[in-house]
Design a protein that fits this description.
The chain is of the alpha/beta class. The chain is built from 9 helices and 6 strands; from the N terminus they run H-H-E-H-E-E-H-E-H-H-E-H-H-E-H. The protein is 40% helix and 20% strand.
Amino acid sequence: METTSVPQLFDPVKVSLGLERARRIGAETFLLERMSEDLVERLAPVMREFTILHDFGTPDGAFGKAVASARGVTGSSIGEDFPEVETQDLIVSGFALHRVNDLPGYLTRLRRALKPDGLLIAAFAGGDTLHELRASLLAAESEVRGSAGLRVFPMVDVRAAGQLLQRAGLALPVADADKLTVRYDNVFALIGDLRAMGATASALLRPGQPPLTRTIIARAAQIYAERFADADGRIRATFEIIWISGWAPHESQQKPLKPGSAKTPLADALAKIREEKE
């Protein structure tokens, strides 16, 4: 459910249609598989039992299935609906939150769905994703038309993601990024994979913006090959995955010390560290 009080960048109906088309033509899942493996590894050090799990929006529920298998969770659900308030031990989400209009609102509602001391962990495309494609399309369209529009999803960076966790009221927030470089024969092979991921920019709301022409796309392919190809002629495509996690507040959690409450001055602590190194 999208709100109307925030900028509407995405058409949720077209987002769903794009994912459905990807499933119909044969979804490309290598990114989801990599992210699912990373998710299981990230949860491994968490020494607690999760009995109720919800996968929010991950294509085909891949995150929920991976966690349920690795952790033996039996009470799991999958979908794009928000669970009821304070019902979930763990909420996971993969490759979904980068294409919602009201990300702060979504995070707040997911936090409310967690039981006290419940965990939210999500992964989505970050700001450096497909920067090569973005630059090539911008240069090509500017060259052909004299101006260019938004052709690649707008995405959140790591710093902003951490701030959004705090804004949503999640405790012990953590945000970090992982970059993956994938090589393709050409830009058309890359675009084919994006379609098979349901990740093309067709879901963007761009009123009045003319579509890309064959001339622009052909020129973008040339620019991409000139600027972002390796010695063997294959092009590089960057996928930045931002990981965020945070806990629903609970009295048992660690609390940050109040300013000025430290018993040892910082200068003394640093001096002690230097002495130990020497």
